[in-house]
Design goal:
Blueprint lengths: L2 E5 L5 H11 L9 E4 L29 H15 L7 E5 L1 H6 L1 E10 L20 E3 L4 E9 H13 L4 H10 L4 E2 L2
Parallel strand pairs: 1-2, 1-3, 6-7
Antiparallel strand pairs: 3-4, 4-6, 5-6
Helix pairs in contact: 1-4
Length: about 180
Amino acid sequence: MLFPIVCAAPLSKELMNHFISVSGIDTTDTADFVFIDNMSTHYSNPSTFPVSADSNPCSPFMGKSPTEIWEMLVKLCKDTGSEIMVWYVIVLDERSERDGTVLLVTDVGDVGEEDGGGDGDGDGDGEEEGEEEDGGGRRIQTVRATFEVAAEEVVLFHTGHRGIEEDQWKAEKDKDGVFRG
């Protein structure tokens, strides 16, 4: 299974390669990552590095909330048979270009399974981190993180060595609300 890196903004290959380099994805052999920027491709192999082309300037993920992105990834898997992990997602967005951060998105299960944290604003702007619910009763949690820690964090979420709640708590203590490790 592949960890998805969703392109939610038009991204230059230079930015994508910078993210790959500083996050350590290019040197890891413990997890595979793939850039996702359309809904018709069957994703079954990791992206190759260095990236040789800019992302799709018409990515369907642009302007979408974390819950909408999660729903789109679930649909992508159903429609194309893509082999991606929809539970742990890295989102490169407009803010990534400005400040070298990404949005980490996790599906923490059905509403009511356990009490979650976060601000629960559900405004869909992708800027406020916390928790939102989709119409089907799923809880999606997010935290803004630096490029340097993003890949390692989603692997830690997946293996159960850390939960997103810990990162949210640390990010809340930082003046700009960004998790730095």
